[in-house]
Design goal:
Length: 448
């Protein structure tokens, strides 16, 4: 099969997951468990280059009448095999579910064990299941064992037993909020935990169990990275980061005239805390060196093929090889992952350290710069001060980088963000800024 054929098939599946045919998938899958689809909403699509394509939906459903006729939209075949989705705790009243549809391959034993169903379509095979079940993240079932609220449980759950052991004191989960869910990859929760010393906030990161040992190493490569503990089954417990994320410092930032504006060197200094042992870890491939996959994902979400291909060619032509010495890097150094103290005078934390390892400083700087370009597209008024900070951050990077190389790597970061854009306007913003960087334009030129 030609590479273009594989890309076309992938794009067709993305169209199915985003479009009205998704309703057929959800309706038929729920019907297999005696449930009737009421409403559905696509929350996010995950299309990793060279990997599976998945989608997450919020679904409202209710028990079906026993004698009602099957519903559904035309366009997909019936379910490929008799099966039942893993059922929610209560089916006697309208229920809200998080459902996952994915191209991941599952064996018959896996499907049976997790209550997944297989659906065939002209575009390919898809599997559907109900969160918190996940074939790669067994820890989800410990974090969310049922639909009961944490405060309503009469007996300690297995999660609370493990939290108590890891934290060194009897602990009870009072509140639990899911912040991130990337099916088959990871989930992040904010938990309010109480003990005899009072309440504290911790974060639970659920990952593939095979990744735990390496993630523990990565999280110990800087004093700014919050403490981490292993609770088993891929569940990691992280302390709450002190200070405020750079995004909050930048949002609606209107300091008094006598207060100096945020110094970009404060942000860059956080990278100096990364320890040499990070050089012994596996390296993360930066966006500038995985352009083919990024282009595929960008085109799949509707970006103009010709412009994307020209952008990739321009990035490749401008890259400097090598761009400097190998140093410890964060790998995902952006404004939400860097915390500063209340006065924004010192870095107070680095979070999301899953990508810490060897690399080139310019890629961390380009990641920060790319995300600064993105922020005004989320809230132009709230981030009205970002263009000024982005300009000063850009200037602070130039003494230690080649300008063309920095611009090319920042353009690659923007290309990597494009598939997750929230609107066509945001997509156009990312593409326009990336193209402008290759023409030598600066943040001041592009974020007016």
């Amino acid at each position: 099969m030609r590479e273009d054929d594989g890309m076309d098939t992938r794009n067709e599946l993305l169209t199915v997951l985003r479009g009205p045919q998704a309703e057929t998938l959800l309706r038929q899958s729920l019907r297999a468990s005696g449930m009737l689809l009421r409403t559905w909403e696509l929350e996010q699509v995950y299309a990793r280059p060279g990997a599976e394509v998945s989608a997450r939906y919020r679904v409202q459903c209710a028990p079906a009448e026993r004698d009602s006729a099957p519903g559904g939209l035309p366009g997909l075949s019936e379910l490929a095999e008799p099966a039942q989705l893993n059922e929610p705790a209560e089916l006697s009243k309208p229920t809200e579910l998080t459902m996952i549809a994915s191209t991941v391959e599952l064996s018959a034993e896996q499907r049976a064990g997790m209550g997944a169903v297989r659906a065939e379509s002209p575009q390919g095979t898809l599997h559907l299941w109900v969160h918190p079940v996940d074939p790669e993240l067994p820890g989800l079932l410990l974090v969310e064992p049922d639909g009961e609220k944490p405060a309503e449980r009469s007996a300690p759950t297995e999660l609370q037993v493990r939290l108590s052991r890891a934290l060194g004191e009897q602990s009870t989960v009072q509140e639990l909020q899911m912040l991130v869910l990337r099916p088959l990859r990871r989930a992040v929760y904010r938990a309010v935990v109480s003990s005899r010393r009072g309440q504290r906030v911790v974060y639970l990161k659920v990952v593939r169990p095979s990744r735990v040992a390496q993630l523990l190493q990565r999280h110990r490569c800087s004093g700014l990275i919050p403490a981490i503990a292993d609770a088993g089954d891929g569940i990691l417990i992280l302390d709450q980061a002190p200070g405020l994320p750079l995004t909050e410092h930048l949002h609606r930032a209107c300091p008094p005239a006598h207060v100096h504006p945020l110094n970009p060197r404060v942000a860059i200094s956080a990278l100096e805390t990364l320890r040499p042992e990070a050089l012994d870890l596996p390296a993360r491939v930066p966006p500038a060196h995985r352009l083919a996959g990024l282009a595929e994902s960008a085109i799949a979400v509707g970006a103009d093929r010709r412009r994307v291909q020209q952008l990739c060619a321009g990035i490749e032509a401008a890259l400097r090889q090598p761009p400097g010495p190998l140093v410890p890097t964060h790998g995902d150094f952006h404004p939400a992952n860097l915390f500063l103290d209340a006065a924004a005078e010192h870095p107070s934390a680095l979070i999301d350290a899953d990508t810490v390892g060897p690399g080139h400083r310019v890629d961390d700087l380009a990641t920060m710069l790319g995300h600064l370009f993105a922020l005004p597209s989320f809230d132009a008024e709230g981030y009205a001060g970002v263009p000024d900070f982005a300009g000063r951050f850009h200037a602070a990077c130039l003494p230690d980088t080649d300008p063309d190389d920095l611009h090319a790597r920042t353009a690659a970061v923007l290309l990597s963000l494009l598939p997750g854009s929230r609107s066509p306007a945001q997509q156009r913003h990312y593409l326009r800024c990336a193209e402008g960087l290759l023409r030598g334009l600066t943040p001041g030129d592009l974020l007016r």
